[in-house]
């Protein structure tokens, strides 16, 4: 599907001798007498695969960027319907529904691009450490690249499909370029690891991190939120806040969801094992909840990466990036409203406030588009 030039196959070797010195023994080694020495960490066996997954986030961002650009240009040129009598038909992009479809894809494209940059830097930082015998960042890298590969490819596929449908019947035409972009991007859900299975890799790291947090052990940077207390009830919209302060509040709410889902999944796993289920049987019965926790953990990291990049941006770029970050976070929180309402972290009125702020973000992006 969409990879017409790729011809996948396999190779079977029988009774073939490979010289010991040609066995790619950077991490795992075989001595002259046949003694096998494993790598200092089992995840090093997947080093190249992890690098590919790290780069995939950037690749997916480029696919979404292309699709969004096509859809935005189409929606800027095409006019349909009149809002005021005796006025010319309006641009499709003037409709709130079209903005709601497309503007979040702009924010996502930037978000995934910035996250991809951060995860590639993390890969090189980790590998430099491994060469010196330091493997502290390796579990983070493995969990994050597994989660990102799953979440980003799935979200991108949905985003590109929204772009295609936003172009009416023209989006279905191969001449639009969108079918090829979609086919290329959606393949990422299955190559280099099937998405549902990869979420379980991230979930296992989450479960270990919950246990470590309970024991008071210091956690690595992508899971530090598990050890934080946080506010049970958010004060979002209850007091005047600047855009920057509200962004911090929204990030805290995403942390709250990720922490609760991880802890609840861990507690249920422990409960089942205490009732006599084997470790693996208990895990299999909870994989949907485990994957849910892993998905939100990954979405939290993506949001935090975007925030870190905005804070480090030049002052000339920060205002417009802050608008996109605000749009992204309000959209994410509205999308996860059921999680925020689950334990009354937010009220119904606060969810309405989130929607109101999201619509304001759409107007801000529309204004910037009109004056660009």
Distance between the termini: 37 Å
The largest β sheet comes out as:
2 strands, antiparallel
Helix content: 55-70%
Helical/strand content category:
mainly alpha
**Integer tally of domains:** 2
Subcellular location: Peroxisome
Domain Acyl-CoA oxidase C-alpha1: 46-207
Cofactor: FAD
Pfam families: ACOX, ACOX_C_alpha1
Give a verbal description of the structure.
By secondary structure, the chain is mostly helical. The chain has 2 domains: about 45-80 and about 90-195, Butyryl-CoA Dehydrogenase, subunit A, domain 3; about 200-210 and about 240-370, Butyryl-CoA Dehydrogenase, subunit A, domain 3 (Up-down Bundle), CATH 1.20.140.10. Helix content is about 65%, strand content about 0%. It has 11 helices and 2 strands. It has helices at about 45-75, 95-130, 140-165, 180-185, 195-215, 245-275, 280-285, 285-310, 320-335, 335-340, 350-370; strands at about 30, 35. It has a two-stranded antiparallel sheet. Strand 1 and strand 2 form a beta hairpin. Helix 2 (about 95-130) runs antiparallel to helix 3 (about 140-165). The radius of gyration is 23 Å and the shape is globular.
């Amino acid at each position: 599907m969409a990879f017409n030039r790729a011809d996948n196959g396999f190779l079977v070797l029988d009774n073939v001798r490979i010289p010991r010195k040609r066995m790619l023994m950077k991490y795992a080694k075989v001595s002259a007498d046949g003694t096998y020495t494993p790598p200092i960490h089992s995840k090093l066996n997947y080093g190249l695969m992890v690098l590919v997954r790290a780069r995939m986030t950037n690749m997916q961002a480029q696919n979404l960027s292309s699709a969004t650009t096509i859809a935005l240009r189409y929606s800027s040129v095409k006019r349909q319907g009149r809002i005021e009598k005796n006025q010319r038909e309006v641009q499709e992009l003037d409709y709130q529904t079209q903005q709601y479809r497309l503007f979040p894809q702009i924010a996502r494209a930037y978000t995934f691009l910035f996250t991809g940059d951060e995860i590639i830097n993390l890969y090189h930082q980790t590998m430099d450490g491994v060469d010196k015998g330091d493997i502290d960042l390796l579990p983070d890298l493995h969990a994050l690249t597994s989660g990102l590969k799953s979440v980003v490819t799935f979200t991108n596929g949905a985003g590109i499909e929204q772009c295609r449908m936003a172009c009416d019947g023209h989006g279905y035409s191969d001449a639009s370029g969108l079918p090829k972009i979609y086919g290329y991007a959606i393949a990422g859900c299955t190559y280099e690891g099937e998405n549902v299975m990869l979420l379980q890799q991230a979930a296992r790291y989450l479960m270990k991190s919950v246990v470590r947090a309970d024991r008071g052990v210091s956690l690595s940077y992508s899971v530090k939120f598990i050890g934080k207390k946080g506010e049970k009830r958010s004060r979002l919209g209850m007091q005047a806040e600047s855009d920057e302060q509200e962004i911090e509040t929204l990030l805290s709410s995403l942390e709250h969801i990720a922490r609760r889902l991880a802890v609840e999944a861990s507690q249920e796993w422990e409960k089942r094992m205490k009732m006599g289920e084997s470790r693996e049987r208990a895990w299999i019965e909870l994989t949907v909840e485990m994957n849910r926790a892993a998905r939100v953990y990954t979405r939290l990291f993506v949001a935090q990466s975007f925030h870190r990049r905005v804070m480090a941006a030049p002052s000339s770029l920060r205002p417009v990036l802050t608008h996109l970050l605000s749009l992204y976070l309000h959209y994410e929180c509205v999308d996860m409203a059921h999680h925020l309402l689950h334990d009354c972290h937010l009220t119904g009125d606060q969810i309405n406030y989130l929607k109101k702020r999201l619509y304001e973000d759409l107007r801000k992006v529309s204004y910037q588009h009109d004056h660009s």
